[in-house]
Design brief:
The protein has about 280 residues and is α/β, with parallel strands linked by helices. The protein is built from 13 helices and ten strands. An eight-stranded parallel sheet has the order 1-2-5-6-7-8-9-10.
Length: about 280
Amino acid sequence: MLESDVEMIIDVHTHFMTCECWGSEWSDNWEPVYGSPFPEVTPEKYDLAMKDVDVAIVFGMRATAANVATPNEKIASFCQETKTKTIGFMALDPSDADVLEQMKDGVRLGLRGIKLYPVLAHFDPRDAKFDSFFQAAQKYELVLLWHVGATPSPPGDLSISQPLVIDDVARRFPALTQIMAHLGHPWQRETIAVLRKNRRVFADISATWARPFDGYHALVRAQEWSVTDKLLFGSDFPLWTPKIAMDGLYEISKLRAGTLPFVRKETIDQIINQDSLTMLKLSD
């Protein structure tokens, strides 16, 4: 069990990534954009990166259309192998015929949430045929963490990777706890509107610092719309470490543009020290 504490730093967005699980998706579609080889994750590499946080949520990815699949067993085993205190999430694709069995198996293994990646999996969360999936997730009290926003992969379908898609799910299943990753970039304004109206929807700020101009506007808007209490810290490891993420966020708080509003240091403090485990009902 993990005890929630306001002094803790919780990283809600970290990846377990292996070439075996990703097939050729990285080399074909991501490496040409990022210009770097596949970032294989080992327990040792993970622990070194996570030394600056107290607890981390970790997950793989599943998108059957892209031939990407991280089995539940691999995530559960990885959580056992790391010294870092971790909370494992399963990675599911609701398009899979046996997805409810996969979910049941993940619950049996002690996984507490689900990573969803519609942009590559090509499922439309607004389609009522997936309601049984959301009903099961709600029954098991699982947290849904959505990739929301851009992708470097040409086959990706951006029309089902927008924040208003999550609003549709939240209206149908208001008790379902959901996280929109990356503050929905580049649709951060829409993400903020979704956060404001849906009580159990949150967003992580992973990669917000990577594009400081966008990040500056997004966090100022979050302040103006009073949703900073729904923003969760996430690093997007292995693309970045928690230390790089925290330093990048504080750099954004130093930006000034004449008399325009700016990102307050207190906002960054709040995000980094957010009591995410309690907010997501993962503290027990």
